[in-house]
Structure formats: structure tokens, C-alpha cells
Write a structure and sequence with these properties.
206 residues; mainly alpha; 0% strand; elongated
């Protein structure tokens, strides 16, 4: 009898001691919430609209077109210098043949004329590649190699026009003493035009 009373007295205490252990075990089994691995400190950028994308694509197309045209412009520059140099050399030979006491045989006259026509066409074509190239991004005017190139080639273009006029006038003065004066002026302008063209080419090359 005493034993049963003692067991009844102890058993509730033992049950109460086991409860904290069961609660602790259950808490350990419960999954703990993990913090997110990634998070944004900055707000997300807004997606570009269709208009902005279209403008960007148009800009890229114009930049590509300009780059291609200027590459052809640079290649055509070599041909321009070659044709101008040949024209000046033939013009000098024609001048010496006619006014330098070499008999005025006219050997170089037609060569000089048609080479001059070809040089004018090549010069105009080369210049048009740069003039008509699109400029999608405006640049502020400043003195740089590109500006010096434009100045030199503008002088060369003015010289080409002057050469055409002087050539026509010189040919119209055939048989007159004044023809030699016009021929000399034509010759001087020709060398000045060639020098301006070489200057414009050199400032971009170096």
C-alpha cells in the first residue's frame, strides 16, 4: 500500500519533467525560416519603351553607314592624290612642250586635259562620300585634325574650280601672247591645289 502511494506521488513529477524535453525536441524538429539569399538594394530599372529602342537602332544604323562611307572616302583619297599628281606632272610637261622651246608638239596636251577631267570627277566623288555621310551625333566645332583636313580640302576644291576656269580661258587665247600668262597662272594654281590636297591627306594620316 505504501509502495503504491509512493509511486502515485512520484509519477506526476516525472511526467512534468518530461514535458519540457518533448517541447524542446519538437522545436528542434520544426524547420527554421531561412533568410532570402538575394535581395535588391536598388530599385529595378524600368524597361525601355519601344520608341527608345527604335531610336537606338536608328542611331546604330546611321553610325554604321557613316563609318562605311568614311572608310571608302579614305580609300578614295589615295586615288585622288594619284590622279591630281599625274595631272600636274602632265600639265608641267605640256607647259614645257608649248612654252619651253620643245617645238609645241602637243604630245601631252590631250593627256593633260583628260587626266584633268578624270581627276575632277574623282575629287568630286571622294568629297561627296564625306559631305553626304550622316552625322547622327553632332560635334562641337573645334580645331582638330578633322577641321584642318576640311580646311585644306576646301582650299583644294576652290583650286580645282579655278583650274577649270583658267584651263578654258587659256585654251581660248590660242595664238595670243597673253595665253602664256594664263598658262602660268593655271600652272601655279595647279601646284597650290596639289599642295592643299596633300596637306589635307597628311593631317589625317599622321
Amino acid at each position: 500500500m505504501v509502495i503504491f502511494l509512493f509511486a502515485a506521488f512520484i509519477s506526476p513529477a516525472a511526467g512534468e519533467a518530461l514535458r519540457p524535453q518533448l517541447v524542446l525536441a519538437q522545436r528542434q524538429k520544426e524547420p527554421t525560416a531561412k533568410p532570402p539569399d538575394d535581395f535588391d538594394l536598388l530599385p529595378k530599372e524600368a524597361a525601355p519603351d519601344a520608341g527608345a529602342l527604335a531610336r537606338q537602332q536608328k542611331l546604330e544604323r546611321k553610325l554604321a553607314q557613316r563609318r562605311t562611307m568614311l572608310q571608302f572616302h579614305q580609300l578614295a583619297g589615295f586615288l585622288t592624290l594619284a590622279s591630281l599628281t599625274t595631272t600636274v606632272v602632265l600639265g608641267q610637261l605640256d607647259y614645257l612642250d608649248k612654252y619651253g622651246g620643245r617645238g609645241d608638239t602637243g604630245t601631252f596636251h590631250l593627256w593633260h586635259r583628260w587626266m584633268g577631267v578624270a581627276a575632277t570627277g574623282i575629287f568630286a566623288g571622294t568629297a561627296s562620300l564625306a559631305v553626304f555621310a550622316p552625322v547622327p551625333i553632332e560635334k562641337k566645332a573645334r580645331l582638330d585634325t578633322a577641321t584642318l583636313h576640311k580646311i585644306a580640302m576646301t582650299v583644294a576644291a576652290a583650286g580645282m574650280v579655278t583650274e577649270i576656269v583658267l584651263g578654258i580661258v587659256t585654251a581660248s587665247k590660242e595664238g595670243q601672247l597673253v595665253q602664256r600668262d594664263y598658262a602660268r597662272a593655271h600652272q601655279i594654281v595647279g601646284y597650290a591645289t596639289l599642295a592643299a590636297a596633300y596637306t589635307g591627306f597628311t593631317v589625317l594620316l599622321f
